[in-house]
Amino acid sequence: MKVYFIGGGNMALSILNGLKDKNFIMADISIAEVDSKKRNEISELYKIKVSEKLLSIDSESVVILAVKPDQLSIVCSEIKELIKDQLIISIAAGTRIKEISKFLGSYNNVIRAMPNLCASIKKSVTPYFTNNPLSNSQVGMIENILGSTGICFSVDTEEKLDAVTALSGSGPAYIFYIIKSLINAGENLGLSREESQKLIQHTVVGAELFSRGLSDDGLESLITKVSSKGGTTEQAINVFKNRRINEIIEEAVTAAHKRSKEIGGD
Predict the structure, then answer these.
(1) Do 80 and 181 belong to one domain?
(2) DSSP string spanning 53-79?
């Protein structure tokens, strides 16, 4: 299977690193990148074919559109005469499949995927959607590529990708914000920066593992388990409840969801 990247930015390199670590045949990968400095860096680091633009694309291959949304129409116009039965995967945020298809001259074999920042450490969650039915071999190709940076799965409507953007696409920033706030709180209580950071980061990792796969009731049970009657945790949780932290979080995610739809033209 040949894989072509258009765009050599951070997310493309995250996928490239994931494929390399999965022992993908690097000679089967090509990258088109307009920035000459980036081309040289990629060529030197990965020893793969790098060019300013794609002049040919093998049949039954995969093309990954890894450019900024405002560059999609340009790069699609450059390859639309080169594609016939290739699988196109777009990881450009916000741009709907119907727009990508139009840019490609009404080409419909398009998948839209939404990885996140954690792809760089192979911990991304990457949902994807397509309007067309996929063969087992195509699903395998998609999951080999997108799954190289973490986990991936399909969603049944493109609209769900707006929710994906609001939750997992933007989600790392929410968690970083909370971690930063907790570290600062620890410092304000007299801990050193190093002590507070170590405490919070390990607590976050442990809590995530503890909570994995639990239902809403299961999560509530964990909160109750840690919150002894009249104890310290109960006092903190009461502040969260009184300030309606859950509503603030829901409002924030809803605002991100609304913006994702606006960017997509809905």
Answers:
(1) no
(2) S-S---TT-EEEE-S-GGGHHHHHHHH
